Amino acid sequence: MFTKAAFRGGWTIFGSRKCLDKVRRQVTWKMTALHPSRSITVAIEGNIGSGKTTFLDHFSKTKGIEVIQEPVDMWRNVRGHNTLALMYSDPKRWSFAFQSYVQLTMLDIHTRKQKSLIRMMERSIYSAKYCFVENMHESGNMTDAEYVVLTEWFDWILANQKVQIDLIVYLKTSPEVCHQRIKQRCREEEKAIPLDYLQALHSAHEDWLTHKKFPTPAPVLVLNGDHNLSDMYSVFEKNRHKILLGQNL
Ligand SMILES: Nc1ncnc2c1ncn2[C@@H]1O[C@H](COP(=O)(O)OP(=O)(O)O)[C@@H](O)[C@H]1O
Ligand SMILES: Nc1nc2c(ncn2[C@H]2C[C@H](O)[C@@H](COP(=O)(O)O)O2)c(=O)[nH]1
């Protein structure tokens, strides 16, 4: 560590005041880099099977980070009804009901009291609307009337509730890789997910996060999610300071 003398007599040890100021800036930046001055929320976005849970598991080991995974188990058991399975089995019939409940559960997460300085949440109310609801409406699985009712709810929530996020980490994983990983994970309800559904969801994420077809509520940090597991951990660590500062440096 730098001693007080070093700072006081900077010119003697560092050769010049300019050099000392540079060192001071670097030390200050390093010291704040892992401890933002206010609470921040980071949303991990990406296709099904893109590696979001793996990302969250990795950072859950860091002290001072609160991790909230997607409430999939709540969607699988709404007072005894598995709405996730219903949606996959008959999307035309169940997309609206399922997305209504997704929107409610995500709102609940966004508005929960934050337990740590840094909160990392799997997906957000934004991707539910801008990716999944858009895809269901475009694919004809949601009627115009259902779409506008969900949009009215969404617009009211944004106008009346605190659902802000400070950084979006976008795990950009190719649909083909997601498809392989979903098979590997073999979640019962997802066994029949076709590649073209993942391709449509990839386009929806790209439309939102890359082409900005819809507002992005925070800076977007794009990480290539196609690497193998050990390389992904290196990618996570290489970007740790950007992720924990809650901004795309
Ligand atoms: N980089 C990777 N390489 C190989 N398998 C991975 C990688 N990341 C995740 N997986 C595996 O793929 C499946 C889906 O990963 P997961 O993190 O659950 O994705 P998501 O939460 O985005 O759906 C899991 O079985 C997980 O162990
Ligand atoms: N139709 C929607 N499905 C959603 C939404 N959010 C998540 N999901 C599905 C996709 C997966 O089958 C499962 C968990 O997602 P992972 O990406 O974590 O595997 O839930 C949504 O808003 N609409």
TrEMBL record:
Keyword ATP-binding included in the entry's annotation: yes
Residue ranges of domain Deoxynucleoside kinase in the record: 43-237
Keyword set includes Ribonucleoprotein: no
CDD domains named in the record: dNK
Protein name per the record: Thymidine kinase 2, mitochondrial-like
Entry's Gene Ontology cellular component terms: mitochondrion
Protein family: Belongs to the DCK/DGK family.
Active-site residue list: E122 (proton acceptor)
Species this chain originates from: Branchiostoma belcheri (Amphioxus)
Keywords, ordered alphabetically: ATP-binding, Nucleotide-binding
GO molecular function term, any single one: ATP binding
Annotated positions binding ATP: G46, N47, I48, G49, S50, G51, K52, T53, T54, R181, I182, K183, Q184, R185
InterPro entries listed in its UniProt record: DCK/DGK (IPR002624), Deoxyribonucleoside_kinase (IPR050566), DNK_dom (IPR031314), P-loop_NTPase (IPR027417)
Lineage: Eukaryota, Metazoa, Chordata, Cephalochordata, Leptocardii
A UniProt-annotated Pfam family: dNK
